[in-house]
Amino acid sequence: MPHAGIQEKIHRLSGTPNDLHDRDVLLTWEISDTGIRSLVRGAEILRDLHRAGLSTRVFESGLGVSIFRDQSTRTRYSFRSGCDLLGLMTEELDESTSQIVHGETVRETATMISFLTEVIGIRDDIFLGEGHRYMRDVAGSLDDSRREGVLDHRPAVINLQSDLDHPTQSVSDLCHLAEHFGGLDNLRGKKLAMTWAYSPSYGKPLSVPQGVVALMTRFGLDVALAHPRGYGLVEEPLERARTFAEASGGTFRTVESMEEAFDGADIVYPKSWAPYEVMEERTRRRRTGETSRLDELERECLMQNAKHMEWECTEEMMGRTREGRALYMHCLPADISGVSCDDGEVAASVFERHRLSTYREAAWKPFVIASMVLATRFRESASVLFECLDRGRARRPL
Amino acid sequence: MPHAGIQEKIHRLSGTPNDLHDRDVLLTWEISDTGIRSLVRGAEILRDLHRAGLSTRVFESGLGVSIFRDQSTRTRYSFRSGCDLLGLMTEELDESTSQIVHGETVRETATMISFLTEVIGIRDDIFLGEGHRYMRDVAGSLDDSRREGVLDHRPAVINLQSDLDHPTQSVSDLCHLAEHFGGLDNLRGKKLAMTWAYSPSYGKPLSVPQGVVALMTRFGLDVALAHPRGYGLVEEPLERARTFAEASGGTFRTVESMEEAFDGADIVYPKSWAPYEVMEERTRRRRTGETSRLDELERECLMQNAKHMEWECTEEMMGRTREGRALYMHCLPADISGVSCDDGEVAASVFERHRLSTYREAAWKPFVIASMVLATRFRESASVLFECLDRGRARRPL
Amino acid sequence: MPHAGIQEKIHRLSGTPNDLHDRDVLLTWEISDTGIRSLVRGAEILRDLHRAGLSTRVFESGLGVSIFRDQSTRTRYSFRSGCDLLGLMTEELDESTSQIVHGETVRETATMISFLTEVIGIRDDIFLGEGHRYMRDVAGSLDDSRREGVLDHRPAVINLQSDLDHPTQSVSDLCHLAEHFGGLDNLRGKKLAMTWAYSPSYGKPLSVPQGVVALMTRFGLDVALAHPRGYGLVEEPLERARTFAEASGGTFRTVESMEEAFDGADIVYPKSWAPYEVMEERTRRRRTGETSRLDELERECLMQNAKHMEWECTEEMMGRTREGRALYMHCLPADISGVSCDDGEVAASVFERHRLSTYREAAWKPFVIASMVLATRFRESASVLFECLDRGRARRPL
User: Fold this and answer.
1) At what angle do helices A74-86 and A365-377 cross, to 10 degrees?
2) Is B121 found in the same domain as B160?
3) Count of domains in chain A?
4) Which residue of A171, B102, B141, C194 has the fewest C-beta atoms within 10 A of its own C-beta?
5) Whole-prediction pTM value?
6) ipTM metric
7) Do B81 and A116 touch (CB under 8 A)?
8) What is the DSSP letter of C292?
């Protein structure tokens, strides 16, 4: 029987209730363990169907609308291709050419872009306390409009990176780990080092490390977070990480140095982010309209970073990990010393050795986003996948 | 029998000849009464089919191209989603990244973007005497290229707002009125107040009030237009409104105050637009290349507006309408006092009470645009809709 | 039997091996004669199927990604509509809103935009020695990622204009010539004048004349290239033109004046391009970061052009061609004297007489691009076309 493996996976997916139906994907810690596992399974099945050359087009029409308030290559592509994989056309709402500047309220815009829309993806990650709130506002407005009958249906909101979490990234990372170690259950007891690293480029958001520690602690990993003084993270995901670690039998601790985090690690995730106080000040200045002073703040941020140039994932540092062979992870693009900058997050030889692995990590994202669309839009998402398998329609001629 | 209601509506649509086939939608007053009624019916049927979960994808390939020379959220989304509903991919022609600046002529561009295109949507509403002329030029060029065999077919041009008319808005407004009052025929004798209102934002186009008075007078409504001295409209649509009112048994009059227009009204449409002389001066400066002085003119416009801040749709003003319960309409976004600005077109409490109703009004636009595409592209548009109903293909899994 | 002509054409196409399968389209001179003929045939068949109202949608999902590093109207539209014709959704990678500026390497970006992508189209034509190299780098990166299993498949790269060649243009030109003269074999012995012409607009790329001489010499034409001193072209395509002319029984020579090239010509292609030294200096300044001095260089370029205003395709000049009736060609937009500029490449009366013909020339491009996609993506591209004919699915209702 062809595709027996895929059938088996869908069968397993169908065995658990889909509690993401008609909901949003804003923070992984608001999703049940079952929900997270289903997202991973859904992504695996979609990738398997794609590799088997089978069409997963399930929508005859409908839109995926994206709003990017920060730059993006990978996530933008992943959203568009993930939507296309299911048959949704995509549209990017460009706030500079829309009427939003003319006093349009969030709740109004949310409804206006939803009449024929299945999913709205939002990136808003620069200002602490703003991105997640904006997504909540959009989601709440959709609830209102659905309840009042203005909308026939309610699109799902998918967080494409906020100030709090980056679920399309962290779930892709989880898929990658599951594939690398042979299943989610094999992650138990693995040591993961989520560490700050030096970068000469802009003051990056905090959501990747926050998302990683709050998600990986749920699967029994021993997660160590390391960063220089002044580079702390938002408390909410840290608190979640502590609670999850306890519940899952894993651990979560904060250590003082990259060395300490790397010692004996199975997985390392060295990555730059902005100093917490710079993030706070950035938000403060925006609120008070001092936007002309954001560049100045950016320079301060980079100067502060420059005091910690020794936080680099070098060969020597990698040598401290388990048998010197830890899995190196990164959400990309990485700041590679001697390649994309003089001194950066990672030595060129280390990155080069793990480069293709980071590409494989990134390759999950379109499927993870498509999996999130399926889970949020269909009560019986497993049935939808079964139907794709059964009809056996080719994605393209050979 | 399922969907008997839809079948009945399509049956009625098929009973009238489609005189929009192979034509454009530039000005509603160039379309016959039958044509307007068919557009409304088409939009209703498409919405019914959508709600019934049936696919209305009728194109296997083909493009909808849009050109926006002014900002847009709603209409841009409506064009894209209306096209997608029928299976057309959309492309926006961004004049800043195209070669149009390098001396490309309108007639050339028109043909170049038409080879595989079914519909071209254009917004060009800022300069009096220019937007409509541009659309005519595009349409004329397509005629030429079709006649000469350069094009196998001729795309329809749809006005997404010009200096003269805004048919996708006014027909959506008409659909909303028909739904609210239980049918187009029930609009006879209803009193509609189309009035200017104060706004602190930019000098808005005249096409919404022009489009509303020139369309609603055709359905027997008693239309009163009110605005401060100096805020007159283009003569052509006013002349049409007078003629239409006479023919339909309705009335059309211009009054001196918002109060007078609101007295006993069933429907009110208070909305800001720029002073006529500012619109003329804007066009003059553009023609003479004084574009650096457009900002200055914008300030003058806003200062002139500020003399009429009492033109606000307040609770007191609404109290003058029939039983104090007129239907409030707006094309959105509205300038809401205390919400999107200090003083604006409408009091916050009035807008809030009617907010969802304005969203319902806006919800018609994707279906109205799709209806325009069907009517202009297919001689037997009713047959195309019957086929969608008969084949019963689901728009998406449940 | 309906569509017997189309069937016959597909039959002929199927008789030759498709050596473009799993390859790129970067330079026509790297493609075999058979390959070029197949691209022309493919475009003809796709146009015939389109005119016959038959759907050529062969992809259920998949993306065409474009990267434009220079302005474009025609090619951008052609890429999108050519992809749509086959069922691919398109996405334009906007480098200004992506993270490419943050040190992302070419090889990384190439993989990141390829996971669900069938074709990547790139325009990069401003800097000598850069555009083609960039495309090669992208192609090489895709080879790596495919070999390493990071990509399940490898998208084709299609050159949408580089510093060396402009194959979607030159193959469209070839289709136009084949149609005009009744077949590719009828081009033998025809005289083609590829000449420089004066333009007051920016310093245009060299790839159109390079592409035309390197392609047309393969089909037995007698090609004369003419330009003022200092407007030479890149050596590689010129060398190819000489070799191809010898092999095909045609000729290739460089002459000193537009007059000499036009004498007795069957086809004329008068078109502006930048002085070679300006192109070199432009590249040098970019490499040394003197980007602020690019505008200054642009002015020098236009001043140098202005010394050669007599290079204009006038009525008198056309009078020198065979019976005064040569076919006038242009890639558009042309700089038309008295229309798009005071003095330009071509007299208004000459352009007007040939205007529709240039539109027909341009009309080939969407089909040529679709033909390139079919040839590069499917080993048996003829079978794919047969299947489109056999299933007889309508592209749209009538």
Assistant:
1) 50
2) yes
3) 2
4) B102
5) 0.96
6) 0.94
7) yes
8) G
